[in-house]
Design brief:
Layout (H helix, E strand, L loop, with lengths): L11 H16 L12 E3 L6 E2 L1 H5 L7 E3 L4 E5 H4 L8 E3 L4 E5 L12 E3 L4 E4 L13 E3 L4 E4 L13 E3 L4 E6 L11 E3 L4 E5 L12 E3 L21 E3 L6 E2 L13 E3 L4 E5 L12 E3 L4 E5 L4 H4 L11 E3 L10 E4 L5 H11 L10 H16 L4 H20 L3 H6 L8 E4 L13 H16 L11 H8 L2
Parallel strand pairs: 1-3, 2-4, 3-5, 4-6, 5-7, 6-8, 7-9, 8-10, 9-11, 10-12, 11-13, 12-14, 13-15, 15-16, 16-18, 17-19, 18-20, 19-21, 21-22
Antiparallel strand pairs: 23-24
Helix pairs in contact: 6-7, 6-10, 7-9
The protein binds 2-acetamido-2-deoxy-beta-D-glucopyranose (8 copies).
Length: about 475
């Protein structure tokens, strides 16, 4: 076979390696340039340059082409032939240009296609869907544009798909969900903007998912929790918003989680504590608030992995300790519950904002002024206590209070646990106010009406 690359200059090392390669050729009976029986061609990791694809174009017998990490040039869409027996094409880290050849779809045996790190542009040709034997497709670090063609969904044997480092956009097509053999998926550093939850449900073998550096601006789909084999999940540098769904706790084998640089908010779900495999987390630069989950990964986290949030608290150097509410009348635990059952039998969970809460407080104070009768005040105090807790928590506190199995006289609860998880994080100043209101509310829940503060007293406390 005539190798046009021999006309080019390359280092002595390359010469040596080429001799070895040529020796191999002689063993497998090298054909002439008009075609023949050349099956394996490998000149990887050299300094070769020139138009290698053009010179291989007519070698239709090729089974494996490995030219990675050289300086080859050429226009892939023009110079790439049709190879009916081609199983492996490895062109990574060269200087190939032009769009991906649609001839690839005419290589029905193709199992591995790696063209990462070139200057390939244009769209991904739908014909790639015809190479149904593909199990590894690496098109990363090129200049590909447009959407992922739906036809990729036909690659039912695909294990590894790397499209990262391009300019791909739009939604990740539903059809990708049918790639049930997928183990490794890297879509990072593109411009994808939407992930359809149905995409996720079938990737039961997926252990690596990288969606970082895109434009996803939705909530994290709860279906992510179904990817139970995941060991690394990177959602960083997007616009994911709302809360982290508690379904994430189903990812028991997840080791590495990066959700930094998003617009996630609310508190971190307790479900993190069930993720026993987790060893490395990064939740920095979001809007998270509330306590850090009690797990080794969080205790071990550096402050860099937690910083830039709204109000995280916990026993970790660099974070403020969590605010707590102290309940001082714990002797009559049973009494509270009975009292609540009597005073407030039917109360559905209501989502009332802090604004409404404060309005009601004002209302109560006003009402109080109209009333002189001592007993009624006491009752109002009890009612007030339940109502405050219900408003803060977003649901009736009965369930919450009955969850206390043992109560020491001075029970300490994290403020966070008493607040409606759906509301935005309160500021530090508001937190202090909430704590004092809540402590009053708890004292109003005393089983013995005489031990409850009167509304007059409550109103004095609150107007401080
Ligand atoms: C490939 O074969 C065609 C004829 O089949 C011929 O015209 C062309 O010159 C060949 N190309 C190379 C690079 O040898
Ligand atoms: C590569 O070839 C295609 C098809 O002939 C052409 O449209 C494109 O402009 C070429 N690209 C480069 C960089 O030469
Ligand atoms: C290859 O794919 C294209 C587009 O997806 C399709 O139109 C064509 O029929 C396919 N060819 C073969 C031989 O399967
Ligand atoms: C995800 O991809 C980015 C590149 O876009 C890379 O920097 C990061 O390390 C990857 N994350 C993981 C967990 O491998
Ligand atoms: C998480 O992702 C961000 C941005 O992509 C990166 O800067 C950071 O190093 C990653 N954290 C870890 C622990 O890998
Ligand atoms: C983050 O989300 C909030 C609503 O949850 C929205 O008001 C805000 O604009 C978002 N921030 C960015 C930078 O998109
Ligand atoms: C905690 O961090 C140290 C180093 O930062 C690491 O060697 C160790 O494995 C980590 N432990 C866990 C349980 O993640
Ligand atoms: C805080 O953590 C340290 C060890 O990291 C532990 O000794 C201490 O008891 C913890 N304090 C509280 C209040 O949990």
């Amino acid at each position: 076979m005539a190798l046009p690359i021999l006309n080019k200059t390359f280092s002595p090392v390359s010469w040596f390696l080429l001799l070895i390669v040529l020796q191999q050729f002689s063993q497998i009976n090298v054909a002439s340039s008009s075609g023949g029986s050349l099956e394996y061609f490998s000149v990887r990791d050299n300094h070769f340059e020139g138009q290698i694809l053009k010179s291989l174009r007519n070698c239709t017998s090729l089974v494996r082409i490995r030219v990675e990490r050289n300086q080859f040039i050429g226009n892939m869409s023009e110079d790439f032939g049709i190879y009916p027996s081609l199983k492996l094409l490895h062109l990574c880290s060269n200087k190939f240009q032009g769009p991906i050849s649609s001839n690839l779809g005419k290589c029905p045996q193709l199992g591995t296609l790696k063209i990462a790190g070139n200057d390939i542009d244009g769209m991904i040709p739908p014909e790639i869907g015809n190479s149904t034997q593909l199990h590894e497709l690496d098109l990363s670090s090129n200049h590909l544009i447009g959407e992922i063609p739906l036809e990729l969904g036909k690659l039912s044997s695909l294990n590894r798909l790397m499209l990262n480092g391009n300019k791909l956009s739009g939604l990740v097509p539903l059809e990708l969900g049918s790639l049930t053999e997928l183990e490794y998926l890297d879509l990072s550093e593109n411009r994808f903007s939407k992930l359809v939850p149905e995409n996720l449900g079938h990737w039961l073998k997926l252990h690596y998912l990288n969606l970082s550096n895109n434009e996803f601006s939705q909530g994290i789909p709860v279906e992510l929790g179904d990817l139970v084999q995941l060991s690394a999940l990177d959602l960083s540098r997007n616009m994911f918003r709302e809360e982290v769904p508690s379904q994430i706790g189903k990812l028991e084998t997840l080791e590495k989680l990066n959700i930094s640089h998003n617009n996630l908010s609310g508190s971190l779900p307790r479900a993190f504590e069930e993720m026993h495999g987790l060893s490395c987390i990064d939740i920095s630069h979001n809007e998270f608030c509330g306590p850090i989950p009690n797990s080794q990964a969080f205790r071990n986290a550096s402050i860099e992995a937690l910083q830039g949030n709204k109000g995280l608290c916990g026993n970790i150097s660099g974070l403020q300790p969590c605010k707590t509410v102290t309940i001082t009348s714990g002797k009559h635990r049973k009494g509270w519950i009975i009292f609540i059952e009597v005073v407030f039998p039917v109360a559905g969970a209501v989502a009332i904002s802090m604004v409404v809460a404060l309005r009601i407080l004002v209302l109560f104070r006003k009402r109080k002024r109209d009333s002189d009768e001592q007993q009624r005040s006491a009752n109002n105090g009890g009612f007030f206590g339940v109502l405050v807790l219900e408003i803060f928590k977003g649901k009736h506190p009965k369930e919450f209070l009955s969850s206390f199995s043992t109560l020491s006289p001075n029970r300490i609860i994290e403020l966070h646990d008493m607040l409606d998880q759906r509301l935005p994080c309160p500021s530090l100043e508001i937190k202090d106010k909430l704590i004092s209101i809540m402590e009053v509310a708890f004292s109003c829940l005393h089983v013995n009406p005489e031990s409850r503060p009167t509304m007059q007293y409550v109103s004095q406390l609150l107007s401080k």
